Amino acid sequence: MRELLVEGHVGIAIQDAGGDHAPTLSLVYRHPRKADYALDQPFTWNGVMTDLPLTALTRVRRGAHHQRTDRAALYDVIDAALYATLAIVRDDRPVALPVGIGRDGDDLLIHGSTGSDFFRRIAAGAPVSLTITHLMGLKYARSLFDSSMRYRCAVVHAVASVVPPEEKEAALLTLSEHLMPGRSADVRPMTAREIAATLVLRVPLTEASVKDNAGSLVEVDDDGEDRSVWAGMLPLRAVAGEPVTSAQTAAGVAVPDSVRRAAERVSAAGMS
């Protein structure tokens, strides 16, 4: 076992496999005062996309022991989200917009108008940064300095590719099924004109980071704070409200089962 560990940082513990096999690399956080903290999943250099590699863009530096490097953690964050914040640099200025998302295997699908300058720049190869955050709670400490948020967050860095015309309808249905599952069976099919007016982009989930401190509520015994001051967590979650029928809907039309199921799904998973 070899170690490349620096106090206060995530490092690597290398386990030689012997023979021609690639070594196994485990991510370890060397805590300044406590025992080393092994991150959840090791990864191997075997060419299989099962874990998230660390790069200059994806290595978490603050609270590094909360970083998750398993791809399953990334997909959990993505699949519980209805939208993400998509950012590019346009004319030397950062621009960020919320976009609906849907995962298709190891890619994320997003869409916008073919007339959008923002999306046209992404289609032309502008690098993107995409962020998803689930706010899970507010930590009330005994000082404002130590108070904080509890969240799960994913950040993706990529260059998107344009979904070709022959694949656009299927990609849009994938998006629809994530955002409004079952809705495509309730409404008319998309027209060729609508599909042509929509730009669909595929964002590879190759370079990404995940940070999860949602379950962290740690107090230090000898912090010197006044224990008569309340401290704890205020949990937060998204909950769907009662569906509101459009005034233009014909009288007597009931809320579809697909909408009821979508509301239950959002509330059960706390999707946001």
Tags for this model:
single chain, 272 residues, alpha+beta, Pnp Oxidase, Chain A, 2 domains, seven-stranded antiparallel β-sheet, 5 helices, 16 strands, 33% strand, globular, Flavin-nucleotide-binding protein, Pyridox_Oxase-rel
Description of the molecule:
- It comes from Microbacterium testaceum.
- InterPro entries: Pyridox_Oxase-rel (IPR024747), Split_barrel_FMN-bd (IPR012349).
- This is Flavin-nucleotide-binding protein.
- With 272 residues, this protein is α+β, with helices and mostly antiparallel strands.
- It has 2 domains: 1-48, no CATH class; 49-218 and 229-241 and 254-269, Electron Transport, Fmn-binding Protein, Chain A (Pnp Oxidase, Chain A), CATH 2.30.110.
- Helices cover 18% and strands 33% of the residues.
- The chain contains 5 helices and 16 strands.
- It has helices at 71-79, 117-123, 165-179, 192-196, 257-269, and strands at 2-4, 10-15, 24-29, 37-38, 43-44, 67-68, 83-90, 93-100, 102-104, 107-113, 128-140, 148-158, 161-162, 198-204, 207-212, 232-235.
- The strands form 3 sheets. Strands 6, 7, 8, 11, 12, 15 and 16 form a 7-stranded antiparallel sheet that branches. Strands 1, 2, 3, 4 and 5 form a 5-stranded antiparallel sheet that branches.
- β9 and β10 form a beta hairpin.
- The longest helix has 15 residues, at 165-179.
- Mean pLDDT is 86; it is low at 39-50.
Which residues sit in consecutive blocks of at least 5 with pLDDT less than 50?
39-50
Strand content: 25-35%
Shape: globular
Mean pLDDT: 86
- What would CATH call the homologous superfamily of the largest domain? Electron Transport, Fmn-binding Protein, Chain A
Determine the number of helices (DSSP H or I, runs of at least 4 residues): 5
Task: State the end-to-end CA separation.
Answer: 42 Å
Q: What would you call the structural class?
A: alpha+beta
CATH class of the largest domain: Mainly Beta
Number of strands: 16
Give the count of structural domains: 2
Q: Radius of gyration, Cα only, in angstroms?
A: 22 Å
Q: Work out the helicity level.
A: 10-25%
Q: What is the succession of H and E elements?
A: EEEEEEHEEEEHEEEHHEEEH
Protein name: Flavin-nucleotide-binding protein
InterPro entries: Pyridox_Oxase-rel (IPR024747), Split_barrel_FMN-bd (IPR012349)
Organism: Microbacterium testaceum
Pfam family, one: Pyridox_ox_2
